[in-house]
Amino acid sequence: MAEASIQPLTVTLKVNGRDYTVTVEPRWTLADVLRHQLGLTGTHVGCEQGVCGACTVLVDGEPARSCLMFAVQMEGHEIVTIEGLTPEAGLSPLQEAFHRHHALQCGFCTPGMLVTATALLNQGKPLTEETVREALSGNLCRCTGYQFIVDAVMDAQGGK
Amino acid sequence: MANWVGQAWDRIEDLRLLTGRGRFVADLTAPGLVSVAFVRSPHAHAAINRVDLEPARRTPGVVAAFSGADLAPHIALGVTEQPPLALQAVHYVGEPVAVVVAEDRYAAEDGVEAVAVDWTPLPVVTDVRVALAEGAPTVVAGRPNLIAERRIGYGDVAAQFARAAVVVQERLVIHRATAQPLETRGVMAIPDPDGSGVTVWTTTQSPHELRRSLARSLRLSEDKVRVRTPDVGGSFGVKNRLYPEEVVVAWLAMRLVRPVRWIEDRLEHFAATQHEREQVHEVELAADAEGRLLALRDRFVVDNGAYVRGGVTVMQRTAMTIPGPYRLPALEAVGRLVRTHKTPIGPYRGAGRPQGCFVMERMMDRLAEAVGQDRAEVRRRNLIPPDAFPYATGIESPERVVYDSGDFPAVLEEALALAGWDQAAARIEAARQEGRWIGIGLAMNVEDTGGGGYEGARVRVDGNGEVTVYSGAVAQGQGHETAFAQVAAEVLDLPPERIRVALGDTDDIPLGIGTFGSRATTLAGNAVRESAIAVRRQIVEWAARLLEADPEDVVWEGGAAYVRGVPERRISLEAIAARANPLTPIPMGPEGPLPLGLEATTYFQSAPTYSSGCHACWVEVDPRTGQVRVLDYVVVHDCGRMLNPKLVEGQIYGGVLFGLSTVLLEELRYGEDGQLLTTTFLDYPLPTTTEMPPLRIAHRETPSPRNPLGIKGAGESGTIPALAALTAAVEDALKPFGVHLTELPLTPERLLQALAQSQSRP
Amino acid sequence: MFPAPFGYVRAESLDEALAVLAREGPGAKILAGGQSLLPMMKLRIAEPALLVDIHRLPALTGWQETAEGLTLGAVVRHSQLERAEALQEFYPLLGRTARWIADPLVRNRGTVAGSLAHADPAGDWGAALLALGASVTLRSLTRTRELPLDAFLVDIFTTALEPDEVLTAIRIPKPAGRPFGTYLKLERKVGDFAVVGVAVNVVLDARHTVVEAGIGLAGVGPRALRAPAAEAALIGHPLESGGIREAAALAAEAADPVSDRRGSRAYKRNVVRVFVERGLKALADESRPEVGVTA
User: Fold this and answer.
1) Residues of C in contact with B691 (CB under 8 A)
2) What is the pTM of this model?
């Protein structure tokens, strides 16, 4: 039987296709471990309250908030962050569409938006403005008024 | 010259931000970094008898802990009204009282939880009426409850009212709200190795102002304090001006001789970062029988919260915004700024102007009703005509308000056409046949932008021919890097990709004010232009020397110089730059030496420019639940010549979100005991993709004569008229019930109450 | 917004989870999706000494559909029900409730059973599953018991769950005819808790007579509520406007809301009436094939 411990635990996280072994207190969120232990600071923390969605990552292909998961829970799951969605050189078609449509201003919500939108595009279903808005409704943006974000995702549908 | 200015160029900033390579303050680190958490007041008003930090110091992972009393001997108090850590008493929930430093933030929070403070609760004032009443408790000892009273106006108001055919009156209430950028505030301070100075990375909107305030607080010369801003995740006004935490973190770094970082969490942000908007207006508007304006009288009260930050500015801007695009022969607006035991207020997006616009536009709708005219017609009748500029409104204080340019009738007509104003009655009637209640609203505004002094830019070509623009006009998402690069590229005739823009390092340029009040692009943009012109002149002079020609005969084109008529003999910017930034002694010709370096710093100063616009929107109201859905939103906007239409549209759309959010969702609420009841995004809802309507925009460009680029600010005009336009649309949807909407926010329940109280039944 | 220290065990089996609970006592808490628990821990409102993680236990995943009804495992996530087209024929209310839960990101992690165990009075699942007449299975190391959901939900954030028990399954009886169900929620924005939530479910026989009716209410009492009088008023009649109005009025009487920042008691009660009426009308329209409107 596993031993309960408030001492740091050693876990292996698969992030962006790479295994990382980290020693971490159980109370550390996945977001904080990604950012402060793995140096993957593209995942942002906006509210810590599980509302803003800036910390969204893919867990086994589905978007979820990394501020609402403890890192120790994530052994055996595949995690993808914004860094993992970025090609070696240049931008992905979705990132290109965000760039063309001016779908970001301060850029703080952008990684979470891109992660959520990637999962939507990966479903491969035809999109309407309404389905895009529904899929992105867990990601807050305070800068853009959302119009250009919706436009960009609709546009990326073709490029995907 | 290439025409870069005016193009919808894709942003330079995007590449790092889209790939997770942006650098926000919480992303920064340094060897030996420790984290900070603050002990904050749970009371709105209480005396501090004792702060026991020992249990915190014994908590695992905690490095140090300090109270206000520990800090006070080491810093200069009085730089701001609020001390960095509270001393004898606290005056709002969330006021910082002590600080715990630990190896990580989790341990710092454990330390905060262990701190024991002995309090004596004191009487709490949360209502401005109570604060102003005879015998009211003093909110902050030694300071008056009435902070300021300002009378802003002109003309003979009494005489105009005496001859009025129509007078409409209203009491208008606007609630407390705040900006909530998605990134909270944060500070990381790195001490000089010997502890004699400090570099402060912070989310501020005004690094130079902060350097001065920090230097004063820490009793250092400005050259021992370097303020830098990394990428900043939105600010909208609330990250402006010195905050207590910036002083404390900078001091801690020097005291501990370790890098120290504090990242505000969202709970803290709700209580510790400035609020705004909360005002009550008693308004009377006088007009003749045809609906022509005669005078407006407004008595209003602004809830300042506990300490003075930017409340006076908010109050003044509210009053100055009232006349808007209309000929208003007389105005008397008397504002009172009143202290309460709440979070201090300071300007955010709109900075008092949304309230001023709300006052005028609500009264215009009332006037239309009183004289039996169409709401658009009554506005049309009162607009300042396009040939009246420069137009002095009559306001002389706190500054003379003279509109520079505009075409208000064209703005109005275009918005009406886009929104389908003329077909509105038929559309509303058709919807009612289907049992749907829809309505249309409109609001206009004129906004002073880019006021208040100067902003600077330094343009430098280094020894390898790389061009960098430096400015204190930092960005928090607006796209300054792109806009400034466009200006420099146009002047220097280089592709914008050749220009690097570095913002927010006080070591890069001596002076600066910062980014607020829709000022950065107007002022810094023109400073970039002037500096680039100076550098271009230097380039040509060096080229002339190298080409052995007269500067008058040198042609500068596409990043190279040649003598007129001899285009095959070109000399590149790289070659010129290498000679102008020499690493070896240079031969001096008979003309004597040229000044070294290709570099210029200029500061552009200007009176405000005046942007204008008209918003029109459609809403649907469910009269059985009070729910509102925004169906369509149209903005016609004139910010003079646009540096980059894409950036302007981004500002406008984002601004509309703020307005919609304020009208329908956001409200900071306090209990009678001064407890802040809204401290999460669940209590204080923000709109998502599904609450925002599709947005449409049309531009008009009436250049400003007040700067060579002809530009005006665009950062706030998406927000300012939105409060009034949306309220008007909801009221219109409920028109058959005779409802008057005078109080924000328009919560479902408030709408049902208004319906229940209305006299008429459809 | 940083949790207090705690211990963590990833259970490899249900028996192991139950053994840890039996050994550790009330300080131990089950962690499944964590979408309600983590915010409370970050606010240090909840400070469990130990978390027992069951989120991947194979015994608790998925669902079984039998002639008696549907059994949902404890770690079935909201998004799974949102997408479960196979459940639409007999349990249409499930998918229509799932899409109203919080926001898409929460739905990907949060569990239905976790919502029930959290017992937020504004939680949507309590209302929907009451309308479906659901029961829950509670297991400890030494016993297994089955409780009607109505008995499981006790008070605000309080259930009949003992500290050594795990909610392992949710059972929903199979409808005795053709089921129609929908969920209506007054929220200020996506992701908000229900100001008022109303679940309506009716089962019709071949003659379009209501043979089963369920009405569940969220946000209008110390826990999710049923409206038994309203349900009774529907049974044995066709779904038509007179009966619908009567049921709506009775449901409003069953509601017992408190005035708070989201609205006054009177306001919420009125919304219950409006929503029950609208929901039942939508079901009536849907059940008439010639109209064929989907809610």
Assistant:
1) 189-190
2) 0.96
